[in-house]
Amino acid sequence: MSSSEPVKARPAAPMVDKADAGYQKGLKTRHIRMIAIGGSIGTGLFLGAGGRLAKGGPALAISYAICGIFAFIMVRALGELSVHRPSSGAFVSYAREFMGEKGAYTTGWLFFLDWSTTVMADITAVALYLHYWRFFEPIPQWLLAMIALAVVFALNMFSVKYFGEAEFWFAAIKVVAIVAFMAVAIWAIITGHAVANEHAGFANLTNHGGFFPMGVAPMLTLSLGVIFAFGGTEMVGVAAGEAKDAVKILPKAVNSMIVRIFVFYVGSVVLMTLVLPWSSYSANESPFVTFFSGIGVPHAGDIMQIVVLTAALSSLNAGLYATGRTLRSMAVAGEAPTFASKLNKSHVPYGGIIITAGLGLIGVLINYVYPTNAFEIVMNLAGIGI
């Protein structure tokens, strides 16, 4: 090569996160795909949508659409970074590579605090769901929350493949339930079938105060709870670090998320406002349970209650998984307690998971002191972090 020819610069090699060492690539293609689907369907929709509909009316669908677009933009960017370098540290690790240690420190601790409060919200949701059945009514809400935390904590102590299997089936149940709801709701709207003595149809949008029954303001003020509903969409980026073929799987899983957001979230909320007046929903019951109980299908309410219980356990499971990996990435870099860097024999970062579960006990305390408002308190705290 002559001296006059320009020298082509080689692209810099991606940074290596030392915290990625020791993990098993135990997540299969089907696990990643269902984690991507299940991560965008959680407690915020299955339980939180009922209370928000009762406060804001049909306009809530607009909030879900706007927040959903921002959620997709975030996950799309995270997907590109994950293809660049799959890492269990996810955006904490990427912040360290492109923004330095201060960026990683800030991002990591905010994410950890966000998911710690989300864990509190999830165990609260489990307790509320269980109180749907008379068998569990005598058991205090705080005790049910603590049992849920203990069970999912134990599950996370096993190999990552058990986490993947659990999330696969949790997500499958959620998807089947939402598709079933949408099919039955559309049928009820077309036929004008009565739901809890109210006829399903477009009249429910106009006969009860219109599309903005409480004005435009609630659409904005309730957005924090809507943002909470999209917490978990980033889980696919965290899971990429333990996937076998992350670079091959991730693009399709991420790019299809915008469709899932508009079909499952916006579509479900719109149908909820068509099958029943918005005032029929409440914060203490899943809107899916309200609908199926009102339509008169035997035991449909019980079945949907099991589904929404599954959704809460899925989110709780994902929260402990993600925080354990994030804390380990920070601990190896000296930004978190050294204990968080520990792996057990199953290659699971048990130190970070124990720390998150320990903070989850604060949620148990909140359920003991404020059982009625516990979910709204911790949901809004988590929404700020998200």
Describe this structure in words.
With 386 residues, the chain is mainly alpha-helical. The protein is built from 18 helices and two strands. The chain has a two-stranded antiparallel sheet. Strand 1 and strand 2 (198-199) form a beta hairpin.
Structure, briefly:
The chain has 386 residues and is mainly α. It has helices at 29-38, 43-46, 48-56, 60-84, 90-99, 101-130, 141-156, 160-191, 203-206, 217-221, 223-229, 235-239, 246-255, 257-275, 287-295, 300-332, 350-369, 374-385; strands at residues 194-195, 198-199.
Write out key terms for the chains shown.
single chain; 386 residues; mainly alpha; Amino acid/polyamine transporter I; two-stranded antiparallel ribbon; 18 helices; 2 strands; globular
Number of helices: 18
Q: SSE string, helix = H, strand = E?
A: HHHHHHHHEEHHHHHHHHHH
Q: Can you identify the CATH superfamily?
A: Amino acid/polyamine transporter I
CATH class: Mainly Alpha
Helix content bin = 55-70%
Measure the end-to-end span: 53 Å
Structural class estimated from helices and strands: mainly alpha
Task: Output the CATH topology.
Answer: Amino acid/polyamine transporter I
Strand order of the largest sheet: 1-2
Biggest sheet layout: 2 strands, antiparallel
Q: Please state the second-level CATH architecture.
A: Up-down Bundle
Principal-axes geometry comes out as globular
Approximately how much beta-strand content do the residues carry? under 5%
Radius of gyration: 22 Å
